[in-house]
Amino acid sequence: MRAKYDPNQPRVPAGNPDGGQWTDGGGGYGASTGDDRRVLSDANPEEWIPGAQYAQNGPQNRNLQIDLLEEEKRGEHVIKEHVRKSEAYLKARVEREAFAIVERGDNFRGLSVGSFQSLESANKLVNSTLAENQHVIDRVVRGLDWIGIARAQFSSVTGQEAFLQRFHSQPYIRDTYAVTVIIIRDQSVPKGFRV
Q1: Angle at the Cα of 126 from the Cα atoms of 61 and 94, rounded to 5 degrees
Q2: Which residues contact 53 (CB under 8 A, 6 or more apart)?
Q3: Going by C-beta distance under 8 Å and a sequence separation of 6 or more, which residues neighbour residue 90?
Q4: One-character DSSP codes across 159-177
Q5: Could you tell me which residues come within 8 angstroms of residue 31 by beta carbon, excluding any fewer than 6 positions away?
Q6: Distance, CA of 138 to CA of 175 (rounded, Å)
Q7: Which of helix, strand or coil describes residue 160?
Q8: pLDDT by residue (tens digit) across 125-172?
Q9: Of 172, 170, 148, 141, whose CA–CA distance to 54 is shortest?
Q10: pTM of model > 0.70
């Protein structure tokens, strides 16, 4: 007996080598025939790139620990610009960066520049922030974004910051309970990004 056309019969998803072909819709349960080439993925369909190999880029970053001393050796500035900085330094830096924003012609909407109390707290808070923002890391490592911004709020003080509300106002120092970490895609390092 010949099978009839059924418009409701499921098809193999697009992107699979067998994409568009009819399937029994078995859903992966039961015995395997050994020829099941369906792809199981947790990749967001909106961010899917043909030919990308997502499985190789994810799990190795799940328990990643950043060492800011190692980042500094590669020319990064986290320690130099954000650890144990004086109030005078933070105020001068926030004014300098605000001036640069206005000089570029960008709209100034307030700015803060912060400092961690110690290298130890900086390492812990940066790692904690990145752990809460795995989706940001994944997008950068996969090449969906070149720069990622990871943010986290904490219930205790993370450091202090100079805040400049308006361009012509005076900056003031306040405690901060948040951390922002900017990561940049870098395929020359094993983790796929730098801080």
Answers
A1: 135
A2: none
A3: 113, 114, 115, 160, 161, 162, 171, 173
A4: EEEEEESSTTSPPEEEEE-
A5: none
A6: 31
A7: strand
A8: 999 999 999 999 999 999 999 999 999 999 999 999 999 999 999 999
A9: 141
A10: no
